[in-house]
Structure prediction request, 81 residues.
Amino acid sequence: MKKTGNVAAGLQETEQDVLDIRAKSQTSAQADESGLKTDFAFRHPNTITGEVTIASDENCVMAGPITVEGTLTVNGTLVIV
Prediction:
């Protein structure tokens, strides 16, 4: 499903393979092949697979323990708590 214009609440594809999660006409999170970007807490699996890059202008927090099966490239900041 693809909708032209802004979605007030729900999912909206804003770029190819990037979904905005919206509520009250505001983007609260984005999802892509690397995972979920959000302004608040999130959850994730214990094992990260595939190829993941944290860009130089990004910060990432993970709760451990974490197992990486693949490639994790950190150009920005990664904190594991």
Observations:
- The beta strands are 10-15, 18-23, 26-32, 35-38, 47-54, 59-62, 67-74, 77-80.
- The longest strand covers residues 47-54.
- The mean pLDDT is 85.
